[in-house]
Amino acid sequence: MQDCNSKIKLQHFLGNHWSIVTIIFLTPILLYAVLHILPTHDDWASTTRPDFNPFFIKEHFLFYGYHWRPFDTWIGYIAGRNPQLLWPAFNHILVVIGHVLCALTVYRLLTIFKFSRTARNIAALFFFISPATMATVTAVDSQNQVFALTCDMIAFLLYVKLKKGKYIFWISLIFLATLFKENGLMWAWICPILAYGFDFIDKKILKKDLLVGITIMIAYALAILLLPKDITIHPEYVPDDFKIVKNIVKFFFSTFITVDYIYLLHQPSRNLLLAACSFLLAAPFLYFIFIRKIKLFAHKQIICTVISLLIAVGPHLGTVFSMMHVYAGLVMIAILAAYSISHFEQTKPVILSFLLWIVTALLIDIHLIDSSIKSGLIGKRMAQEAIQKTGEPVKRVYVIIIEDDYPKLSSFCVIPNEAFGWGWAAQYETNYQWPEVIEDTTIERSADVFRKAKALGLETLKKQQHDCVWIVNHEHIDVIKR
After folding, report:
1. Which stretches of the chain score pLDDT less than 50?
2. Which residues contact residue 102 at a Cβ distance below 8 angstroms, ignoring those fewer than 6 apart?
3. Above pLDDT 70, what percent of the chain?
């Protein structure tokens, strides 16, 4: 009798929460896949890379350049204890854990919004496996993104559930999210707006809590100004009209359309037939959740959700927007999906279209992960070539990069010299034993560019400031020694 009751309870759990079961099943597969991805591009420059500085708290823990992300510095410090073992594996493990926590929190969020069982299961799984998340999930340095969003959503859940102490927990978790990544601060406004949209608070409390949100933002800005560091604004973060328009287009495309981006956008890999097939297979489900019930989107719940979406991605739209930055707004996309699905009387067509979307999304995910792995391996091969041709350890290396017009796509298809990390990949291959110092420059590609690069390398060696020169020409390394 007890076995029978246990079986019934299990069947009941699987029937009600099948998305959670699916997420748990897919997690080890996802982790195994991303563990093969090696660092590329700005992974080599982020504060999550192995840090051997004994004064890292003083020099990196507080405001660093144009970021204040103390948890990144701790990750870099931990990775520095054993780089070959921990980097980037430790980072990938944290990213996947954070993404799973995010997905489970999304499910909980949809539950308290009282969406239908089918709606919350589909929307939570949509969030977890959407190709729009892959630029974050496959990245080495994106744990700040996933944990910032997780902290923000927990802040929201406590904000709407607690009667006593809710402001303490809300404000504390918003600041915690912001110390992971700056866009975590946006939930100082999103929490009251979303809560008002779904009738957890009234208009009077909304006005009061928006003022609290402004106070939170001012407090953070003052903290930044008081930190003992010079604030440096990176040129890429300076907004302009053209950049904002381009970012909005990229945001709309990567958020609301499921397609194999590599086959569509990456010129060397372009296959418009396969790109079209991926879009057409995913289109029925996207039609159901974004277009079929569009008249319902004039309701207060959706208006507040869309406003929250724009606030969440706003900092990126005004500065730098890449596929990774879609992640900040995907919770709101999941809410839109759940809202639409909850208003279907017959959910069978939606479920069938979702099953087709799942197959398409997983195939795209596999392609994106595989391309990320291949990009990392290019950098590894280049590092091994540089080490082999150098022949013996050297202290100081000058890297001359011949400008490469090879097209790239986010972190999936990276330019070879960026996969090489401007020479830093070689440090990783030697377990950071050598070279101790790497300096680089980029020269414009021309008909006689290699001759110019070689002349520059010889001139550098004559000055005796470097022991060796590495000339990077696409995927190939030429070495000049004294």
Report:
1. none
2. 127, 146, 149, 150, 153
3. 91
